[in-house]
Amino acid sequence: PHHRRKMSYACDVAKDLEFKKDLHIFNWEKLIIDKIDGFQQKLLGYDKKRIAVSGNVQRIVEFLNVLFQAVTYLFLGIKVFNNHLSIGDFTRGISALMNFMSISVYLTPQMLNINDSTFYLHKYKSFLNTRSKNDSEEECRGLEDVDPDNVEIEFKDVSFRYPNSTNYVLKHVNLKIKHGKKLAIVGYNGAGKTSLILLLMRFYDPTDGKILLNGVDIRNIKYKDYIKLFSSVNQDFSLMAFSIAENVSCKPSMSAEEKEKIEELVKQNGMAEKMKKMYRGIDTPVTKVLEPSGIDFSGGEKQCIAISRALYKNTPILVMDEPTSSLDPIAEQKIYKKFSEMSDGRTSVFVSHRIYSTKFCDNIAVFEKGEMVEYGSFEELINNKGLFYSFYKQQADYFLNDKER
Predict the structure, then answer these.
(1) pTM to 2 decimal places
(2) Which has the closest alpha carbon to 153: 348, 375, 312, 344?
């Protein structure tokens, strides 16, 4: 069965529109065809063994059936010959025997199919044994106990390593995110920025230390309630092949007022010109996967839709993990300016590689190798001449040299 899953994945890659550019540019055709051929050969090998076993079992069953029938006929014949059994009883016995033989022949392949399905039953059993964050919800607090309208989050000596790993990606982080403030998180790749965001939104729990929401350990708050506090745009955000409106609202139906609000949000977030060219407006499907009238939006345009979705949810805490990585610098500057306006009064956390985009934040946390090495306002960190200042100089020099070229 695992070869069948691999085969299914390779076939999906071959026909998925998301892969079409890389498929053509990097000549994936031979790689994918070889993979499909390899998986197919393994599948054929598996099926040959299965058919061989099935054939042997079938032959044994057939032999036993013939033997059983011969013995039964002989036994009943002797009974009739010795007048221990009437002709009518003999006929009924033969009829019962034939019915039994038919059922046994039918059951044999079914038992083989059940054996094949055991793999999936083991997987299903393993899934059922997986513990959920919601398992102990009855023992946890609801949001009404922690005042969701005035949130303060504190990382208290938090260290973290991913499951099945011995390497700590975060070490002894102490950080406060105050209500209504904008916090930027910066650092080199692999510094632990995204891991911090995953812990904040409780996709993982700390290995050591704890995260507090208004003084309460977030592990003691109902998970379904806690996650309602957040809206986010992640690096690997997802859009569905439904309309723009459905992607933003995440609802199957909307009122006229809701649609108007969605349209305004999408326009404000960099899609105003694009919207003028779409005769279906926010009812335009994202991609052509389900409808030919859909549009294959660019990476930046998809990001604008994802940002609109995060703002539309209107939650107390807004999280942006590299939200503008697919946008050009001018579009990015406009988006961040709009963020600054629309996130006023909301606790906001921004992860960014571009230092100049952190200017509108109240505070900046600088990470290096899993540790928070600097914290302060933009001006304070520039004046400190530390790692943040080094980032700033590197990027300023790069853009200046690029402009001169």
Answers:
(1) 0.69
(2) 348
Q: Residues 150-173: pLDDT tens digits?
A: 889 999 999 999 988 899 999 999
Distance between CA atoms of 194 and 235, rounded to whole angstroms?
9
| Average pLDDT, integer, range 76-103 | 75
Question: What mean pLDDT is predicted for residues 371-399?
Answer: 86
The tokens of 132 are what?
């959920």
Strand 317-321 and strand 347-351: pairing? parallel
Helix (H) or strand (E) holding 155: strand 153-160
Q: Backbone dihedral region of 346: left (phi > 0), alpha (psi from -120 to 50 degrees) or beta?
A: beta
Choose between 405 and 78: higher pLDDT.
78
Task: Evaluate if residue 26 carries a pLDDT over 80.
Answer: no
C-alpha span between 249 and 305 (Å, rounded): 11
Residue type at position 128: L
Residue 265 to residue 376: CA distance in whole angstroms: 31
Predicted confidence (pLDDT) per residue in 305-316, tens digit: 888 888 888 888
- The DSSP 8-state label assigned to residue 345 in this structure reads T
- Token pair 């571009």 is found at 354
Rounded CA gap, 120 and 126, in Å?
10
Terminal C-alpha separation, the chain: 56
Sheet holding 317-321, edge to edge: 230-233, 317-321, 347-351, 182-187, 363-368, 371-376
Q: How far apart are CA 347 and CA 200, in angstroms?
A: 13
What letter represents residue 46's amino acid? Y
